[in-house]
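Open question from group meeting: does this chain pack into something compact, or does most of it stay loose? Before anyone orders reagents, we agreed to write out a predicted structure and look at it together. Recording both the input and the output here so the notebook holds the full record.
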Amino acid sequence: MPEPTVQLFCGDCLEILPTLAAQSVDAVITDPPYPHIKRDYGYWTEAEWWAMMMPVVAETRRILKPTGSAVFILQPNSEKVGRMRGWLWEFMAWVCREWNMVQDVWWWNIVTMPTVHNTQYGLMRGSVKACVWAGGESCYRNQSSVLWAESDEMTAQRLAGRLDNGKSPSGHTVNRLRMIEAAQNRGGVTPFNILPIPNTGGAHGHGGSTPFALADWWTRYICPPGGTVADWFMGSGTMGIAAVQNGCNFVGIEKWDKPGYFPTAQGRIAKAGMQAQPRLPLDVGKAEQLGLPNA
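Structure tokens returned:
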């Protein structure tokens, strides 16, 4: 298998995406900014966020291969304590109407720390992010690459020989022997649509981070071997690392060079075993300032 290629673009994805070839990417896995969240890389109102995401989604559909799909990792937020904003669910409903949501999937950060919303106002910890999975109904997915290990309870039942039929709390008949045999034949247990992955290991200077384990899981699941993964909001480059370590090509875009995100991503991906090939839509002065070729 040929060595994967890496293309990194420093600039606004709204300007770069129209230059990318149609049907050239197998999977888009990206963590866009959220509206009404103040970060060092910017702040968007809901109207500004929609104005950005609508062309991003349109270009994503054009760039994806017919069997490809996209995952937009998005975190809900509140207007004030006790009043949630609705933009996330509006976006999910819009994807269902205008494209297709393959399945609802959620990432559960199991190490989320409590906030004042929890300690003083009696609310629960906001610990899940939506993985808005959009694509065709029969888009590529390789379930065998993301199977889970058998649960301790199932292992105990198997070892104790308790493989008789039973009933679930909802009244459905459960054939434990068939479940065990299916898991053994597949090599694992089918995953749930809530992914319990702790967000640990640091953000590498980025205000919002995606854990490597989540990037790796989605890469293995929806990108075929040797395919191409893309991230339109690359940040510190975690998605690129997951792509190249799985033998996939990678296309990454990051707008913000001033906080150091783009050079950080380039360095981290290079250390992951690939020599990045920067394509910088910048003037010569800024390219020289970054110490990168002006290509």
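Observations to bring back to the group:
The two ends are 27 Å apart (CA to CA).
Residues 274-295 have pLDDT under 50 and may be disordered.
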